[in-house]
Design brief:
mainly alpha, 2 domains, 67% helix
Length: 123
């Protein structure tokens, strides 16, 4: 019992549970359940006490919750930016087609002229 309470368990993960108590003591669960004095001491010692490992778990769960909220916020922001980007692409394409039409470069009829090849730039 003392090893568990001081956080120096040898055979278990160190959580303050009755299952770990009987494993650390090296007795069966039934033997532990018959030892009323030991169980009373255990309940008095543990009470509402939080084990160091349990407090770490609670802290990590809080961090995970905050990170999940951050991820949700970033995903929403990413979605908004993708929508704005798509709207900008649509506006640019429309402006490009209007500019081509004003220059008279819009093909007429069923034949579409192909632009000539541009020579590669050599730096």
């Amino acid at each position: 019992m003392q090893r568990l309470l001081t956080g120096q368990s040898r055979r278990t993960d160190g959580r303050l549970t009755k299952a770990n108590l009987h494993v650390e003591a090296g007795v069966s669960r039934a033997t532990m359940n018959r030892a009323d004095a030991v169980l009373a001491d255990w309940n008095t010692a543990v009470g509402a006490r939080v084990a160091p490992r349990d407090s770490q778990i609670i802290e990590l769960q809080g961090i995970v919750t905050k990170l999940k909220q951050t991820i949700a916020t970033l995903r929403q922001s990413n979605t908004d930016l993708e929508r704005k980007n798509q709207a900008a692409v649509t506006v640019i394409a429309e402006l490009h087609s209007q500019l081509q039409a004003s220059r008279g470069a819009v093909p007429r009829g069923t034949v579409t002229p192909l632009q000539g090849r541009h020579a590669r730039r050599r730096w």
